[in-house]
Amino acid sequence: MVLFIGREKELEWLEGEYKTKIPSFVVLYGRRRIGKTSLVAKFLKERNSLYYLADESPPKEQLTEFSRGISRWYGSAVRFDSWYNAFEFLSKVKKRKKLAIAIDEFPYLLSSDGAIISKFQKIWDELLSKQNVMLILLGSSVSVMENEVLAKKSPLYGRRTSQIELKPFSISGLMTFFGKDMENALLKYGISDGIPAYAEKIKRTKFPECLNEVLSPNKFLYGEASFLLKSEFRETPVYREILYAIANGRNMFGEIAQFSEVSGQKLPQYLKNLASARLIKKDFPVTSKKEFRGARYVIEDNYFNFWFRFVRPNKESIEYGRSKEVFDAVVKDYNHYMGRIFEKAILLMVDKFIPFNFTNAGRWWHKNEEIDVVTFDRNTRKILFAECKWSEKVDAENVLRELRRKAKLVDWHKEKREEYYAVFAKSFKKKIKEENVLLFDLKDMEKIFRQRIK
Q1: Most-buried pick from 137, 170, 172, 266 (CB within 10 A)?
Q2: Which domain holds residue 307?
Q3: With contact defined as beta carbons under 8 Å apart, do 301 and 193 qualify?
Q4: Integer CA distances (angstroms), 350 to 5, 409, 433, in order
């Protein structure tokens, strides 16, 4: 039950699809450990349903296992020689209530049988689209689900009635999960991101002791990064070097190529694959066009960011029994690491704090100048410049002075915009009040979120 904190909308969405009087074809996907299976299991509970988890077995074994699942659902042994015959049987069984059929890890079926998508097209067109059923296809390989199931070239294109990419927990979801303490939630967010399976591992352990869940070689989170990379990519060592480069501040294309020793010709495809897996993203200054040459690559997943920042370079020490030394070093450096994590968190929840709606939000940089958060509304031309300081007793006046200086460099409707300024910090040396200036410390933010969580 705990893993469904923050999943109410998704559960409601599935229930809405089920209640429709027409056949439903739902595609649900998202990166591994995001909670797809748990969500669907919760939804299917006490419903007329059939669930099948695909694996890497040969096609005949997959069909045999699916037949066994139908036998358990039907209450009598049945066996089928094709997927079409299996679904034909299901379509002929009289049903008082809508039948929900969930096929989990659909990409495994595709990898074992390249024609499976065409087979499911025929199954849907000739059988299920005329029955009182709900078909759910789930997948952890985001690239496969988007390129093979949802894309225009797919035989299944246009058949789905709904789709959703399951995202990590929101910050408010994490606060509910970890307890309504903003600092605690953010510290643990730096380790687990909003991934339910990771958050569960560190939920009951206080910070900084919870770091041991990643830094101890016998723990699940220690080996998880390597496992996921091997599951997702063939050339694992290459992807590992690229992620290591980005985690260590090599964010520009040329820097990544040099640090990882991957040729500039091959690197774009590797980066594209990592982005498709939702592990990295290509970042642009928020006011720029996408053709901007100074794009930066950042690790999108905090768990991977932490692992490649602290675990990868210390694996030898950890595995030789010097975990305590590594733990102490990580604790010492963690506040510095949290600087970028805090910026990311503020970007995700900035809409809760500013006095206007916005059309764009992101970071801004030009040469050596940077602003942590910039949001603006193209219609009203209101713009907010914000700095995020993971520090105690921040001098707001100094930060604002520097922020105003950098804001003048942002080339966006300079003479025709309404400017706002904000500073987010753990705490302030002194709060100041000025028109169009917003200051939020952790207590302020926590108060706002507590009101929303109630």
Answers
A1: 137
A2: 171-347
A3: yes
A4: 21, 22, 20
Structure confidence by residue, pLDDT tens digits, 92-127: 998 889 999 999 999 999 999 999 999 999 999 999
In the chain, what percentage of residues exceed pLDDT 70?
Answer: 98
Residue listed under structure tokens 């303490």:
181
Here the tokens at position 274 are 């990592």
- The number of folded domains in the chain is 3
Q: Is the peptide bond before 196 cis (omega within 30 degrees of 0)?
A: no
Residues 134 and 243 in one domain: no
Strands 280-283 and 369-376: unpaired
Say if residue 119 is in the same domain as residue 196: no
Which helix or strand (DSSP H or E) is residue 436 part of? Answer: none
Q: Are 3 and 35 in contact (CB under 8 A)?
A: yes
Residue written as token pair 């599951």: 231
Q: Are residues 115 and 192 in the same domain?
A: no
CB atoms within 10 A of CB 162: 16
Residues 358 and 390 in one domain: yes
Pairing label, strands 49-53, 369-376 = unpaired
DSSP run (H or E) holding 199:
helix 196-202
| CA distances from residue 39 to 5, 8, 200, 240, 415 in whole angstroms, order as listed | 11, 10, 15, 30, 50
Neighbours of 349 (CB within 10 A): 16
